[in-house]
Amino acid sequence: xxxxxxxxTGVAVALLLAGVVSIFASxxxxxxxxxxxxxxxxxxxxxxxxxxxxxxxxxxxxxVVVVLALAAGVTYVVRRRHSDPTE
Length: 87
Hints:
Layout: H1 2-20, H2 31-38, H3 57-82
Helix pairs in contact: 1-3
């Protein structure tokens, strides 16, 4: 029971951080963009469409859910293989 509480608390904290922290993210360009602007070749780049462009709170929450789902799936497969009596 204690393990379940710890896991649920961890998931809640991860979702909260993913949803809230992105609101405070800097809008300043990253290092690579800054260098390209400083040296005058930023116009040569191309933009690409993205499924989750903008990196807002929803993107952070979706990322947490996807990672947790993958981790749960791997854990399920490993536990099932480990407890398989035919091996």
